[in-house]
C-alpha cells in the first residue's frame, strides 16, 4: 500500500535551512573531502563542483564556476541537489535480497573510485531520517551486475553462471542521527538499454542480524541516481570502461531516468574531483527525500544465502513484459532475458 502523501525535499527547504541542517551538511561534506585528499596524499586544489529529461539534462552538476579552497563552502557544497525516491520507479531485474551491511562495496572491482555522501530527509516531517537502512547496487565498469545471471549485461555475463554468487557493488548502510549514509564504490559502467546509474532502496524498521544482513521492516522507496553526461563521457574513455563494446544509451535517451526526473527533483548527484584527474576519484553527494510511511512490495531476482545466490522463480519481474514496450536499440528482435524494464503501475 502506498502513502497518499507525497512531498519533495524542495518543499522542506526553508525548514531544513532554518534548523541548520543544510549548514551542517555543508561542513560535513567539506571535512570529508579534506580527509579523503589527505588519505590519498592529494594536494589542495580548486574545487570545481557539480550541479540538466530537459531541465535536469541542461544542468551541469560539475560547474565551470571559479571556485577555490578559499571560496565559501556554501558555494561548493550548499547546492540543493535533491531526489525523491518514487514508488513508481522500478527496482529492475537485478535486485538481490540478503546483501551485507557495509560501507565499502568495491571488493576487487576496478574503476573510478566513488565516495557517496547521501542524506535522507523525511518528507513528512522535513527532518533528517535516522536509523533508516539504505541499500545500493550497480553494475561494474563493464556493465556486469554481480549476484545475477542475465542477458543484456556487458561482456557476455549471461554465460557466466558463477556470477550469481558474487556480491561486489552491493551493500547496505544505516543512516546516522543526521540521516547520513556513506558508501565507497566505483562509478558504474553501462549496459544495453540503460545509462550509468546506481539503484537505491530504503528499508524502514528492519533488524540487523548476526550475519550482518537485515531482516523484516518494510521497503519504503526505490529509486536510481545518475551522473552528468559530461562526466560519464570522460569516464568511458578510461579502462576498463572503454573495453565494454555494448550499445550505450545516453542520459537523454534513458526512459527510466526521464521518469525519475518527472517528480520535479533532480536525480543527478553533485560531485567534486578529489584530485586533478578523474582517475584520482570522485566525491559525490545528494539529498534524498523519503516517505517512511510508504510501503512497497519489490521482487528480488535472487536471494543471497550462506550457500550463495538462489534464483527466484519470477526473476524479479512478476507479471512479465508490459505490453507496448519498445525494444531498446542494439537488439535485432525480442527483449533480452534480464533486461531492465520500464516502471510498472504499483497501485
Textual characterization of the structure:
There is one protein chain. The protein has helices at 13-18, 21-39, 54-58, 73-77, 229-235, 255-261; strands at 82-84, 96-97, 113-122, 127-128, 133-137, 170-174, 180-186, 197-204, 207-208, 214-215, 218-226, 270-273, 282-290, 302-305, 308-311. By secondary structure, it is of the alpha+beta class. The chain has a single domain (9-305), classed as Protocatechuate 3,4-Dioxygenase, subunit A. The protein is built from 6 helices and 15 strands. The chain starts with 12 loop residues before the first helix and ends in a 36-residue tail after the last strand. The radius of gyration is 19 Å and the shape is globular.
Shape: globular
CATH class: Mainly Beta
Task: Please give the alpha-carbon distance between the first and last residues.
Answer: 7 Å
Please identify the oligomeric state: single chain
What composes the largest sheet? 6 strands, mixed
**Second rung of CATH, namely the architecture:** Sandwich
State the order of secondary-structure elements, H for helix, E for strand.
Answer: HHHHEEEEEEEEEEEHHEEEE
Residue windows where pLDDT falls under 50 for at least 5 positions: 1-5, 48-58, 63-77, 317-347
Strand content of the residues, in percent? 15-25%
